[in-house]
Specification:
It contains 7 helices and 5 strands; from the N terminus they run βαβαβαααααββ. The protein has 157 residues and is α/β, with parallel strands linked by helices. The structure holds zinc ion (ZN).
Length: 157
């Protein structure tokens, strides 16, 4: 089960060379977590027997950049609010320019945002947390590298 951004450059099934019937995919701008996404993850794992939840961020994410720039626009505002904790988390450690035009900072926020989503899954879904603790599922994070086409997994979550 992959929770990914909706970015057209990250077609999840293609990224993982998988066909019909292989992956559950939930896509939402900025791969954030909300109640319906949690319900979808719980369905995939508890009902359908999925063994791995992967939160997949990606390079050059427009949602991440917009959150850094504090964009306010319609319903996008509420969506971007969910990325703000990652902007703060990355910003507290980052030494350079904390802007959307700084690729290094955008990358740090992207990583932090994947971690925030994983934290949110554990905190807000007792079902998935319990499954993880019992060793029935893994909850992992990764970032899709657009230059190489590789999915870079985080090691220490
Ligand atoms: Zn994106």
């Amino acid at each position: 089960m992959v929770l990914s951004c909706l970015d057209s450059r990250v077609p999840v099934e293609d990224v993982f060379h998988s066909g019909i019937g292989n992956l559950f995919v939930a896509r939402v701008a900025g791969n954030i977590v909300n109640d319906d996404i949690l319900g979808s993850l719980e369905y995939a794992c508890k009902v359908s027997g999925t063994k791995v939840v992967l939160v997949l961020g990606h390079e050059y994410c427009g949602a991440i950049k917009s959150a850094i720039s504090n964009v306010k626009l319609g319903n996008i505002t509420t969506l971007l609010d969910k990325i703000q904790p990652a902007v703060k988390m990355a910003g507290s450690k980052f030494k350079g320019e904390k802007t959307a035009s700084n690729e290094a900072f955008v990358g740090e926020v992207c990583d932090a945002n994947v971690m925030v989503s994983i934290e949110q899954i554990r905190k807000r879904s007792p079902i998935l947390k319990e499954m993880e603790q019992k060793g029935e599922i893994l909850i992992v994070g990764a970032v899709y590298n657009m230059k190489t086409g590789k999915v870079e997994f985080f090691n220490d979550l």
